[in-house]
């Protein structure tokens, strides 16, 4: 009998009615012959509520106690779902991280999984149970409760699927799968039937919320077949898996918009070795991720350096950069609080040239100025003025993905 891990997110278990619906769905899968391990998130809003409670009692709540607190959301939903399954006459057992022996390091709030001892899960399945595991939580070698980071019940699910060598890991959520763009911005966007791990990783890194990035990394490492699908319908969803020939033929799988970027420019920086290190060293040390960097050609030995950070890091980054600017005698510091980063992602770019040129052409045709560019093997990002962000997504989607079924932009030979 195939073993399937099904993860249900916060919205899917957000009320008693929804938990009943999830239980019905699990029952149908079980009736179809699958052995099932369910992983649940906390009920929608619960984790935020718990964090807020802690915040009311202390400005910097202790990380260990915070984990004891915020991990309870998943304990509640696991128990509720097990109760409902039993009420339907299905043997079920909830298991917390300590019972799953999902051990992590002691990094509270963002612990990394070290191992999972699946014997207890296998025994429970053997005894005919549906296992309902609490996501998001772990336990360190001393038995302290840890959590794996926000959104990490996806990671719990993939990790369990890997450890159990599950047939597949279903991420059941409030959307029908992974889309070529956000349908709220770009109505012709369509659901992808398949996408590669690498593309999904890029999309998750660009803010697509359907899958947590670390869970995709883990799925890739252990080759776990993942399917993202709706909790509310039986629509087939999007498969995330290894790249194949057909995927390579599709140049662009997705177009994304990130509105949470800020741009900082350091003007009049002396053009000599070591200065970039001086500037970015302190920023890196502060744990701030710098995404794009450009350095202008220097004029009279001075150059401008521009880079982006996420908006939440802007103030801290500015403080640090102003300090360095004073030290190195730079001309000044300018910033723009909100810029848009539009990106196109597709593994076909590995083997086909010309996508970047096409992207720039399309933006130029609309009169959208490109302020910065960054590329990876399968991604091209451009920073544009925030007011053109949505327009950029629509025109790029139209030109590079199109709305013609499987077809997408093919290199013109
Ligand atoms: N409940 C946790 C959170 O809100 C984990 C999750 O939902 O994946 O971040
Ligand atoms: Mg989630």
Give the topology.
Layout: E1 3-8, H1 16-31, E2 35-40, H2 46-57, H3 63-70, H4 72-87, E3 92-95, H5 97-100, E4 102-104, E5 113-116, H6 119-126, E6 130-134, E7 137-139, E8 145-147, H7 153-163, E9 168-173, E10 194-196, H8 197-205, H9 213-221, E11 226-230, E12 238-241, H10 245-249, E13 254-270, H11 275-285, E14 290-295, E15 302-310, H12 314-328, E16 332-345, H13 355-365, E17 372-376, E18 379-385, H14 389-401
Parallel strand pairs: 1-2, 1-9, 2-6, 3-6, 9-11, 10-12
Antiparallel strand pairs: 4-5, 7-8, 11-12, 13-15, 13-16, 14-15, 16-18, 17-18
Helix pairs in contact: 1-4, 7-9, 8-9, 11-12, 13-14
The structure holds aspartic acid and magnesium ion.
Q: How does this structure look, described?
A:
The strands form four sheets. The chain has an eight-stranded mixed beta sheet with strand order 3-6-2-1-9-11-12-10, with helices on both faces. Strand 7 (137-139) and strand 8 form a beta hairpin. Mean pLDDT is 94; it is low at 404-413. It has 413 residues and is an alpha/beta fold. Helix 8 runs antiparallel to helix 9 (213-221). The chain is globular, with a radius of gyration of 24 Å. It folds into two domains: 3-174, Carbamate kinase, CATH 3.40.1160.10; 255-406, VC0802-like (2-Layer Sandwich), CATH 3.30.2130. It has helices spanning 16-31, 46-57, 63-70, 72-87, 97-100, 119-126, 153-163, 197-205, 213-221, 245-249, 275-285, 314-328, 355-365, 389-401; strands at residues 3-8, 35-40, 92-95, 102-104, 113-116, 130-134, 137-139, 145-147, 168-173, 194-196, 226-230, 238-241, 254-270, 290-295, 302-310, 332-345, 372-376, 379-385. Helices cover 36% and strands 27% of the residues. The structure holds aspartic acid and magnesium ion (MG). Magnesium ion is lined by residues 9, 41, 151.
């Amino acid at each position: 009998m195939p073993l399937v891990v099904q993860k249900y997110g916060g919205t899917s278990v957000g009320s008693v009615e929804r938990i009943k619906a999830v239980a019905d769905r699990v029952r149908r899968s079980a009736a179809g012959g699958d052995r099932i391990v369910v992983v649940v998130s906390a009920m929608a809003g619960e984790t935020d509520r718990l964090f807020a409670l802690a915040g009311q009692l202390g400005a910097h709540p202790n990380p260990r106690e915070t984990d004891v607190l915020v991990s309870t959301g998943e304990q509640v939903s696991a128990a509720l779902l097990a109760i409902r399954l039993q009420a339907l006459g299905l043997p079920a057992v909830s298991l917390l991280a300590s019972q799953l022996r999902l051990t992590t390091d002691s990094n509270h709030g963002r612990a990394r999984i070290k191992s999972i001892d699946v014997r207890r899960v296998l025994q429970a399945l053997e005894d005919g149970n549906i296992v309902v595991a609490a996501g998001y939580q772990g336990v360190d070698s001393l038995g302290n409760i840890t959590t794996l980071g926000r959104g990490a019940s996806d990671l719990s699910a993939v990790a369990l699927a890997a450890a159990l060598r599950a047939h597949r890991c279903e991420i059941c959520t409030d959307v029908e799968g992974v889309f070529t763009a956000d349908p709220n911005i770009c109505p012709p966007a369509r659901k992808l039937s398949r996408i590669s791990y690498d593309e999904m990783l890029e999309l998750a890194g660009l803010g697509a919320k359907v899958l947590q990035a670390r869970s995709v990394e883990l799925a890739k490492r252990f080759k776990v077949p993942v399917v993202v699908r709706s909790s509310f319908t039986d629509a087939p969803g999007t498969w995330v898996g290894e790249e194949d020939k057909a995927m390579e033929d599709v140049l662009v799988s997705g177009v994304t918009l990130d509105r949470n970027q800020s741009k900082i420019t350091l003007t009049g920086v002396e053009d000599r070795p070591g200065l970039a290190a001086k500037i970015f060293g302190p920023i890196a040390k502060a744990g701030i991720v710098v995404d794009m960097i450009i350095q202008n050609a220097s004029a009279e030995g001075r150059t401008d350096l521009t880079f982006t950070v996420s908006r939440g890091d802007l103030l801290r980054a500015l403080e640090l950069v102003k300090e360095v600017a004073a030290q190195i005698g730079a001309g000044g510091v300018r910033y723009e609080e909100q810029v848009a980063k539009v990106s196109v992602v597709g593994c076909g770019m590995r083997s086909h040239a010309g996508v970047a040129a096409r992207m720039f052409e399309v933006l130029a045709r609309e009169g959208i100025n490109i302020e910065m560019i960054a590329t990876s093997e399968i991604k091209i990002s451009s920073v544009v003025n925030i007011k053109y962000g949505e327009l950029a997504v629509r025109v790029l989607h139209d030109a590079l993905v199109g709305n013609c079924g499987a077809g997408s932009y093919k290199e013109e030979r």
